[in-house]
Amino acid sequence: MSGQFEAVVEVDRPVDEVFAYLADGRNDPQFSPRVLRIDRVPDSPTAVGTVFRSTVKDAGMKTGREFRITDLQAPVKLRWAEVSKNAVTAREGGYDLEALPDGGTRVRLFNVLDGHGLGKLLVGLALAAARKDADAFGRRIKTAAEAAIAPR
Predict the structure, then answer these.
(1) How many angstroms separate the first and last alpha carbons of the chain?
(2) Three-class SS of residue 103?
(3) What is the separation of C-alpha 97 from the centre of its chain, rounded to a whole number of angstroms?
(4) Over the stretch 79-119, which tens digit does the pLDDT of each residue have?
(5) pTM of the complete model
(6) How many CA atoms lie within 13 A of 108 on its CB side?
(7) Could you write out the three-class secondary structure of 24-78?
(8) Cα distance between residue 81 and residue 37, in whole Å
(9) Which of 6, 78, 129, 135 is buried deepest, with most CB atoms within 10 A?
């Protein structure tokens, strides 16, 4: 079983700056409380092939995660795929960004989750939790991006 969750939020900052903020996955802990640590490999600007290695805490358990950037079209599209081996993984995820007439940015975040082994039994629970939190997750992205990016 697999499934998708998504969130859409409007950030009161320019699209190029929001894209730069989100493309640097090291900012993820600012809006994702499950991310305890994250590193970018190589430690250079994010590009196709960049890997983000993280330690996350889900359901009280710490796991290691690795995501590879698979597509990057600044400032409107970023895609990733999880390459780590966990019970539940994000087969595909990404951000779609759209410049708004008022100078803000519409951000759509999505992840497609798959279960592997025992994870086939758990993926439904993971999806339900992610879908329940999707709107709040979008609001956390908005709050963090607006705090990190100075207004123009």
Answers:
(1) 45
(2) coil
(3) 13
(4) 999 999 998 999 999 999 999 999 999 999 999 999 999 88
(5) 0.94
(6) 11
(7) CHHHHHHCCCCEEEEEEECCCCCCCCCEEEEEEEECCEEEEEEEEEEEEECCCEE
(8) 18
(9) 78
